[in-house]
Write a structure and sequence with these properties.
The protein is an alpha+beta fold and about 140 residues long. It has helices spanning about 5-20, 25-35, 85-105, 125-135; strands at about 40, 50-55, 60-65, 110-115. It binds zinc ion.
Length: about 140
């Protein structure tokens, strides 16, 4: 299957999402910085410890790995059927936690934007999206 990651590709994905300063996150930071916005990183006091926090704007940005956070209909989110029993509970728990955090943030008056790892493929579109969210 074309959309199934190989074992080595998967371990690369896994090692990437375990580190705090993942490449997609650094890319998003660079874009946001170039747009002239200031932010705080990984604010633990807020639900889900958002990757970027714009306090004055009451906005937060999460940069999510597609596999770990189970991006819907994304080819990077697929996991091997043979290891289904292993991944399914973990990944479902992640999803539930994500939506709970988003709900709690919204209740406290924060606007949330989730940027997915696969969106790094189109920087122009990504920049447009970030600009719209932060200016809107
Ligand atoms: Zn994705």
């Amino acid at each position: 299957m074309v959309d199934t990651l190989t074992q080595s590709a998967r371990s690369r994905v896994m090692s990437r999402i375990k580190s705090k300063d993942t490449k997609p996150e650094i890319l998003v930071r660079r874009i946001v910085h170039s747009l002239g916005f200031r932010y705080r990183l990984h604010v633990k006091e807020l639900p889900g410890c958002p990757d970027m926090v714009f306090r004055r704007l009451a906005k937060v940005i999460f940069v999510h790995g597609c596999f770990w956070h189970q991006h819907k209909k994304c080819k990077l989110a697929h996991f091997p059927k043979s290891r289904h029993y292993y991944w399914e509970p973990k990944l479902n728990a992640n999803r539930r936690r994500d939506s709970k955090n988003t709900r709690e943030l919204a209740k406290a008056g924060w606007s949330c934007l989730v940027i997915w790892e696969c969106e790094m493929a189109n920087i122009q579109e990504l920049t447009r999206k970030l600009k719209k969210f932060l200016n809107g």
